[in-house]
């Protein structure tokens, strides 16, 4: 899970982050204290538009019927702060900084539009929260990529144009700290510098259903690498989705922020 730091650190676009609590609890256990220093990779990211899928092979998708959107729309903040309203023209419910406190650009997944307004999914509790932002505050682009994670099979499928491209084995949350189900999106890309979380970590708009706080943070779910390769394919985390380091490196080179991820 992701722990945020003070806004002052993020001014230099080198936010100090802690990716905490993505290993399974042990008995007896104490509160995890492992922390990480990470950089928000706010530059050099693929733009949220159609891009090549690279040379990845395309093994078969899981047998259970699933689907992913052929394209989805991403809204990227174009101003220094974005006011979110409960309805078009309604009162402001929250104001979000751009860039985010970790230096990453502020992005949203678009779920609808209305004259002069964009309906967006929000990275906040409760999961599934939405709001309205002014069209003038964001720029819109499309991505043809999507992810579908299945906790029962501990698998993650990469889609492009609605077609499965590659299936990855992953680790997900334990029975006591499950990975939340729902429709989410990638909110940030980090480069952890401590051991345990691999070369890359995406923050998701998802938050733990059972941990309202963890390691000093709000219990945000991550998609990241791991140094514990033996955990892949098992229920082993506090809710995060772990991947082999080579696999998360593939995704980090492909997926723009705002890419949708369905967890089921």
UniProtKB/TrEMBL annotation:
Keywords attached to this Swiss-Prot or TrEMBL record, sorted alphabetically, are: Cell shape, Cell wall biogenesis/degradation, Glycosyltransferase, Hydrolase, Lipoprotein, Peptidoglycan synthesis, Signal, Transferase
InterPro entries of this UniProt entry?
LD-transpeptidase, LD_TPept_cat_dom, Transpep_catalytic_dom
The L,D-TPase catalytic domain, residue ranges: 145-264
The cellular component terms of Gene Ontology attached to this UniProt record, alphabetical and capped at eight, are: extracellular region
Q: Where is the signal peptide?
A: 1-23
Q: Which family does it belong to?
A: Belongs to the YkuD family.
Q: What's the protein name?
A: Lipoprotein-anchoring transpeptidase ErfK/SrfK
């Amino acid at each position: 899970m992701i722990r945020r730091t003070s806004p002052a650190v993020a001014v230099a676009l080198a936010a100090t982050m802690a990716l905490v609590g993505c290993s399974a609890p042990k008995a007896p256990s104490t509160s995890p204290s492992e922390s990480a220093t990470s950089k928000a990779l706010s530059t050099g990211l693929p733009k949220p538009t159609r891009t090549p899928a690279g040379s990845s092979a395309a093994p078969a998708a899981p047998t259970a019927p699933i689907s992913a959107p052929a394209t989805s729309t991403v809204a990227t903040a174009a101003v220094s702060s974005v006011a979110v309203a409960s309805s078009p023209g309604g009162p402001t419910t929250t104001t979000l900084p751009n860039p985010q406190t970790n230096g990453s650009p502020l992005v949203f997944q678009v779920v609808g539009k209305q004259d002069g307004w964009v309906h967006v999914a929000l990275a906040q509790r409760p999961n599934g929260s939405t709001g309205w932002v002014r069209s003038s505050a964001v720029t819109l682009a499309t991505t043809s990529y999507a992810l579908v994670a299945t906790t029962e099979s501990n698998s993650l499928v990469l889609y492009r144009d609605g077609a499965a491209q590659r299936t990855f084995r992953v680790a997900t949350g334990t029975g006591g700290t499950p990975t939340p189900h729902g429709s989410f999106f990638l909110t940030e890309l980090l480069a952890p510098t401590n051991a345990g979380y691999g070369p890359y970590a995406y923050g998701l708009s998802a938050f733990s259903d059972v941990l309202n706080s963890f390691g000093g943070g709000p219990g945000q779910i991550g998609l990241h690498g791991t140094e514990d390769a033996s955990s892949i394919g098992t229920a082993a985390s506090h809710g995060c989705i772990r991947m082999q380091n080579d696999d998360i490196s593939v995704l980090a080179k492909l997926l723009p922020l705002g890419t949708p991820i369905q967890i089921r």
